[in-house]
Specification:
hydrolase; serine protease; alpha/beta; protease; 3-stranded antiparallel β-sheet; Peptidase_S8/S53_dom_sf; about 25% helix; about 325 residues; 7-stranded parallel β-sheet; Rossmann fold
């Protein structure tokens, strides 16, 4: 089996405490949906990563279940604790609780299925990731909940057929699969950099911008980028009940995963039915704003949950189905 790992990321600083709506979450306009009454309630997001700090105050009511596919803790399946910090940071951006302390996630009432597929060192077998995807597909919650979004901030250089097939199966089961583009970018938007699973056409491949809406120099560019989200100096949860500021396409990805949870709640309430994966992807892309960069760098543009939609009100739905 090939190896897969954390997409390299940078720890900018570790904080003991904070009390803030993270700037990246403000940038994608998540608070506007909170004000309209949408917070991701009823949606389960599976985060495939290094696990999560399950004792963190931000996850007291957020984690619905979890599973460990790694050899950490002698492979104990029920122990999905994070010994790296990366998975905890990603989980916080998706769904840190609205509790008056620390940070708040994009979808603060969504539930997290924590699937540990990378060890504390940040590495794992592609087999673990493939098994993790199959687990997310088959998983059912105490009230028969199903996973609606899979978030993966990880990658490898090798195109593995078993991993690709698992992703296709997840999409066939109406699960939106959101993946980091990778951090091997050279600053030249005309060159291709690929990391898998991000480069598979079936996934939502997320590139990174800074808080000034400029493409991050490290962000991979290729013709399959779908959209971009904030990935530099992102504050979120970290180990030991703490917080940290990290940078990477790993940090951009959970902004999109959390946004998908908000849109599931909003659109399904409005349409009074369950969205297909294709429809959810279309709703996501409808809420982007094009930046002054190549589509190979930005895809459809930066995620803007309200202003992006306003700017596209005259466009036919079919124009968004460019997956």
């Amino acid at each position: 089996m090939s190896r897969v790992s954390l997409i390299p990321f940078k720890v900018e600083k570790v904080l003991n405490d904070t009390k803030v709506v993270p700037p990246g979450i403000e940038l994608i306009e998540a608070p506007s949906l909170w004000e309209a009454g949408y917070s991701g309630e009823g949606t389960v997001v599976a985060v495939l990563d290094t696990g999560c700090d399950t004792d963190h105050i931000e996850f007291k009511d957020q984690i619905i279940d979890g599973y460990n596919f790694t050899t950490d803790d002698n492979g104990e399946a029920t122990n999905y604790e994070d010994y790296n910090g990366h998975g905890t940071h990603v989980c916080g951006t998706v769904a840190a609780a609205e509790n008056g302390v620390g940070v708040i996630g994009v979808a603060p009432k969504a539930k997290l299925l924590v699937i540990k597929v990378l060890s504390g060192q940040g590495y794992g077998d592609t087999k673990w990731v493939t098994e993790g995807i199959h687990h997310a597909i088959k998983w059912r919650g105490p009230n028969n909940e199903k996973v609606r979004v899979i978030s993966m901030s990880l990658g490898g250089r090798i195109d593995t057929p078993e991993l690709h097939q698992a992703i296709k199966q997840a999409v066939d089961e109406n699960i939106l699969v959101v993946c980091a583009a990778g951090n091997e970018g050279d600053g030249n938007h005309d060159t291709d950099e690929y990391a898998y699973p991000g480069a598979y056409p079936e996934v939502v491949q997320v590139g990174s911008v800074n808080l000034d809406e400029e493409i991050s120099e490290f962000s991979n560019t290729n013709c399959a980028i779908d959209l971009v989200a904030p990935g530099e100096e992102i504050v979120s949860t970290y180990l030991n009940n703490g917080y940290a500021v990290l940078s990477g396409t790993s940090m951009a990805t959970p902004h999109v995963s959390g946004a998908a949870a908000l849109l599931i709640e909003q659109c399904e309430r409005e349409f009074e039915r369950t969205l297909t994966e294709t429809e959810l992807f279309a709703q996501l892309i409808k809420r982007t704003v094009s930046l002054n960069f190549s589509r190979r760098a930005q895809g459809s543009g930066i995620l803007k949950l309200t202003s992006g939609l306003v700017s596209k009100t005259e466009e036919p739905m079919i124009s968004t189905l460019e997956k």
